[in-house]
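To illustrate the input format used throughout this study, we show a single complete record. The first block contains the structure-token representation of the backbone; no residue identities are included at this stage. The design step must infer an amino acid for every position from geometry alone.
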């Protein structure tokens, strides 16, 4: 019974330590990440129904495709990957640590025969003299050796970059640290949005995800002092849009008129505000100047779109429509003038050309002298307390990958034994745990130099 239980436990352990499991998990994570990239995440249900239809929407919702990176099955894949990394490291790390901590200082002949790099030399020198020469040579050309005497033989062991064997485990640890940072960010952080109209303030933002946005209290107030937008010359394509943000905490302005533009966010108390969108807020206000043609008397009116103002003589004027850039002539407004007993007349006035309406004729000459349209700024708001943990993991990932792929643990053994005819026999071998081909070339060069050193 104990044997069966032990066998079952071993099977489970071997499953989690399997490299095949690692490959399968990585393929699944890559495939599911493609799904999460193609299907936009955390949108409103109405948008998904419009794109995919009712039936497909219900299926994708059950599969958690709309919030895939928080779904139970994706998190289960990450957890399984983490367990696989821990199991692999736990199984192999003690063996690697033993190789580094307790190297074979007195190898036998069978050990040398197992190496792909091996050289045997005989010399007339005494073993002690040969030992001193080889020790000085290794210290100069490779690394200072450890000298051991056993069974009448002298053994020299020299190694470089033994710590390179731990590069892969640094990489494993970095991935786990990145997972921990992501968990901290998901549990204690949030992603939200807020729209703030110029001249107004708010202390709440709206969390993304779920069917309904959830309000989050910031603990301080954010005010949009102004919003501005610049265009590329000769077009209405936005070049830059900028918000001037003031942060008020406990009644005091701690940050004043801080510019927030795309790729240049504002950070306060670990909460980051990104410039995301913009748009008009409420009806625009127009300043219309009416000049009576006969007397040249001028009247100025401030109108909202759709509302009328009465002119001297009983006629009325109202703004029916407007454009920020009318046929590249700049801001324009569409006016409608209604006189008693006459049909309403509509025409366009241009802000940059105040005398344009004089050519129309009529009792009044109208000019658009002012246009005020308040804007709202759309900000993405993010708090991620685990971001520094993730950056630490990314740094370790780079370091571990460089060590694991570009550096190697290189070792050289030399054994000296006295021969029956009074000569000394030398057996020399080497090994590298990675990039053995390059090491063999270096070893061949080193053994040639060693032969010359011995013969000298």
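Output of the design step:
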């Amino acid at each position: 019974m104990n044997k069966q239980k032990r066998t079952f436990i071993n099977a489970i352990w071997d499953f989690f330590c399997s490299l095949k499991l690692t490959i399968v998990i990585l393929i699944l994570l890559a495939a599911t990440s493609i799904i999460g990239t193609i299907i936009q995440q955390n949108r409103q249900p109405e948008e998904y129904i419009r794109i995919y239809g009712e039936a497909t929407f219900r299926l994708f919702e059950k599969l958690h495709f709309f919030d895939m990176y928080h779904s139970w099955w994706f998190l289960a894949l990450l957890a399984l990957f983490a367990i696989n990394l821990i199991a692999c490291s736990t199984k192999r790390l003690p063996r690697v640590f033993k190789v580094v901590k307790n190297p074979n200082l007195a190898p036998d002949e069978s050990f040398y025969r197992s190496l792909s790099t091996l050289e045997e030399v005989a010399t007339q020198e005494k073993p002690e003299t040969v030992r001193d020469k080889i020790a000085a040579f290794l210290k100069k050309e490779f690394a200072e050796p450890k000298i051991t005497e056993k069974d009448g033989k002298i053994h020299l062991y020299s190694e470089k970059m033994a710590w390179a064997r731990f590069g892969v485990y640094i990489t494993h640890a970095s991935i786990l640290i990145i997972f921990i940072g992501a968990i901290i960010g998901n549990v204690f952080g949030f992603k939200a949005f807020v729209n703030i109209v110029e001249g107004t303030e708010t202390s709440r933002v709206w969390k993304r995800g779920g069917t309904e946005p959830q309000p989050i209290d910031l603990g301080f107030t954010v005010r949009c002092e102004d919003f501005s937008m610049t265009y590329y010359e000769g077009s209405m394509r936005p070049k830059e849009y900028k918000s001037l943000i003031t942060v008020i905490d406990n009644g005091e302005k701690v940050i004043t008129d801080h510019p927030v533009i795309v790729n240049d966010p504002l950070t306060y108390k670990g909460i980051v505000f990104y410039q995301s969108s913009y748009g008009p807020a409420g009806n625009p206000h127009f300043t219309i100047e009416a000049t009576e043609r006969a007397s040249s008397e001028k009247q100025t009116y401030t109108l909202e779109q759709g509302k009328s103002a009465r002119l001297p003589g009983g006629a009325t004027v109202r703004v029916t429509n407007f454009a920020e850039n009318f046929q590249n002539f700049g801001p324009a407004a569409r006016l409608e003038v209604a006189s008693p007993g006459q049909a309403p007349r509509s025409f366009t006035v241009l802000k940059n050309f105040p005398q344009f309406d004089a050519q129309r004729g009529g009792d009044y000459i109208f000019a658009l002298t002012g246009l005020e349209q308040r804007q709202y700024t759309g900000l993405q708001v993010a708090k991620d307390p685990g971001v520094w943990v993730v950056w630490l993991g990314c740094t370790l990932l780079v370091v571990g990958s460089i060590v694991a792929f570009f550096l190697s643990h290189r070792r050289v053994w030399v054994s000296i034994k006295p021969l029956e005819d009074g000569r000394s026999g030398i057996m020399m071998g080497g090994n590298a745990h990675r990039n053995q081909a390059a090491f063999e070339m270096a070893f061949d060069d080193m053994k040639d130099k060693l032969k010359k050193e011995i013969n000298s």
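Structural context for interpreting the output: The longest helix spans residues 72-101. The two ends are 68 Å apart (CA to CA).
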